[in-house]
Design the sequence.
């Protein structure tokens, strides 16, 4: 498989696409997802793990609100991973992650994930490369465990924004009273580490691609949401699920 | 490494050993363990996972009571794994196990463990060999995760009893009012599957030996407890732990 180079991948929607048409199509997909999620839950065989990664202000919360937010919350849960708690840091880095792996029939969304342990931690040199590459192998083993041993379909999305789009959104957070709660004075300092983040992201993509990453152009929210809804729909459809028969 | 063949390993204490001397030595070791456990907890770097496996009536509960029962319960917890709950069965077989992996500084005891998923499940053909061997690979990955990524020292003990000793203990449970609570009518049926259990245990030992199994002759409780206390003591000593300096 050819290597993923973020600088060669567009952050914008393909020019030929019509925004309103795509938004209408997304609405149709979300209606289809309703029935597909019901089947997933009823058949109780497969589960889906959606990993949402991306730089600050890349639109992770928006995906969760607009795509997975339309699903039945009985069968869809979201977990945000922040800095590890004291208890979590007592354990290996996958311990707190494993606890939130989806049970059969469930769709679990990770807002950030185990990948942070090879991203922010590398950028700030809290871990060295040797540990980072060991962790990548552990991540591959772990994702295999979920998929082979519990029929979990893992969808790993990277929300690919340009540094300009990020900057604009971060500034908005300082100006828009409805967005100020999201502002973190640390974000601007982190944004200056852009190139370093791109390097470690590329390593994550290229070394943890047994279950492939999906790079989502994310400068336009309507396109980003369309790609993610479409991927989820196609994944669920490919499972050829059936409602279980009445037990006698 | 040469293959483990249970039929070639004695289930009894070496004849030359003096029971009373060994019991006195075990008491000394338990006193040493008190200080070593304190160090483990204070240094907060390593942890220990003791996996206790064995046939019914092989003396698992006795080890937990007499060896680990003397440790400081603030730094030592025991988890018994029974048939999976409905929630646990929704997940891959290591999900419920991972949750109880020891945090730094802790000694965690597993009374039965993830190994049951390649033992009882194989004997009763709830899983086929293909799944069993896949699980063994997942177990190796998992144990590596704990040891490489959280400095957990894993001690896997198999309490090796003879079928005659087991039979005698099971009969005792039907006759001794203090032991009747342990009796399970299923145990006698399981005991008839002895040879099948030995086969699947040998597979577990020979395929999941990256972190080596310790086969403990267990017909004599005094010897079994000595071996386990000694192994734990030597493991903790080998860590060359030091009390942390005062933080300034």
Sequence:
């Amino acid at each position: 498989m050819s290597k993923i180079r973020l600088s060669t991948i567009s952050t914008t929607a393909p020019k030929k696409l019509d925004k309103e048409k795509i938004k209408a199509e997304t609405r149709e997909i979300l209606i289809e997802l309703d029935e597909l999620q019901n089947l997933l839950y009823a058949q109780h065989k497969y589960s889906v793990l959606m990993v949402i990664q991306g730089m600050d202000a890349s639109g992770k919360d928006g995906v969760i609100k607009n795509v997975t937010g339309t699903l039945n919350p009985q069968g869809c849960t979201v977990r945000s991973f922040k800095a590890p708690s004291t208890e979590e840091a007592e354990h290996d880095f996958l311990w707190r992650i494993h606890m939130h792996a989806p049970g059969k029939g469930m769709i679990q969304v990770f807002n950030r994930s185990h990948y942070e342990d090879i991203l922010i931690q590398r950028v700030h040199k809290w871990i060295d490369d040797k540990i980072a590459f060991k962790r990548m192998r552990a991540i591959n083993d772990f994702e295999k465990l979920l998929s082979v041993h519990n029929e979990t379909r893992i969808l790993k999305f990277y929300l690919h924004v340009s540094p300009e789009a990020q900057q604009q959104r971060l500034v908005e957070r300082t100006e828009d009273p409805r967005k100020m709660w999201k502002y973190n004075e640390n974000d601007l300092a982190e944004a200056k580490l852009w190139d370093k983040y791109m390097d470690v992201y590329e390593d994550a993509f290229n070394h943890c691609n047994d279950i492939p990453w999906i790079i989502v152009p994310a400068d336009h929210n309507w396109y980003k949401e369309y790609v993610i809804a479409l991927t989820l729909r196609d994944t669920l459809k490919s499972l050829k699920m059936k409602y279980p028969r009445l037990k006698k």
About this structure: Strands of chain B lie at 47-54, 76-80, 107-111, 152-160, 213-217.
